[in-house]
Amino acid sequence: MPLTRMHTTHRLLAVLLLTLGIVVAQTACADEGLEAKVKAAYLFHLVKFVDWPGLPPDEVRICVYGSKTVAVLLGELSDRQVKERALKIDADSPSDLSHCQVMFIGRAEKKWRGILDKAQGLPILTVSDHEDFARRGGMVGFYAEGGKIRLEINPATAQGAELRVSSKLLELARTVSASKE
Fold first, then answer.
1. What average pLDDT values come out for the chain (181 residues) when binned by 10 residues?
2. Distances (CA, A) of 117 to 32, 111, 123, 137
3. Per-residue DSSP letters for 46-60?
4. Residue 94: what pLDDT?
């Protein structure tokens, strides 16, 4: 992709991600459906800002735990092209995580810590809306602030999984480091 086209694409994606946070406004907490739509959109677009080692040539797979609503919404995007690959959604809580590139753990998932531990050492972008997820060993956490859904990212955890997070995404998110529990 030519450099100018890539810069334009990154700018458009940055504007889109910022807009998603603004669109939620005061209804994010009141309307779970809208909140789920915003999270699904974020998950779809996060893929564009991350590079994986050995990314499969034909697909990018998002595995979803603990949020049927987000899984259904992502399912509507299934087979869309992202990073020149077909997007696939696995909403059946797979026991074998090795085929996932992104793993979303919804706050309804009570065994989130065990799932996160299974992903450790694998090149999987871990994302959740559990409180302080990025500080507690995850990579990307959703949090509410001022009625908007925002991102926090733990770059060290992502690097430990050999993932490269775009500097453009890091500029849009709050960066955090792991805390000791």
1. 50 49 42 90 96 93 95 95 95 81 96 94 96 96 94 96 96 85 56
2. 28, 10, 13, 9
3. HGGGEE-TT--SSEE
4. 67
Are the beta carbons of 22 and 148 closer than 8 angstroms? Answer: yes
DSSP E strands in 100-167: the ranges are 102-105, 125-128, 140-145, 148-153, 164-165
CA distance 104 to 65: 6
**Closest Cα partner for 115 from 150, 82, 90, 145?**
90
Q: Number of helices (H) and strands (E), helices first, in the chain?
A: 6, 10
Return the bridge partners of 85, or none: 82
Separation CA 72–CA 70 (nearest Å): 5
Would you state the torsion angle of the CA atoms of residues 111, 117, 118, 122, taken in this order, to the nearest 10 degrees?
A: 140
pTM of the full structure: 0.82
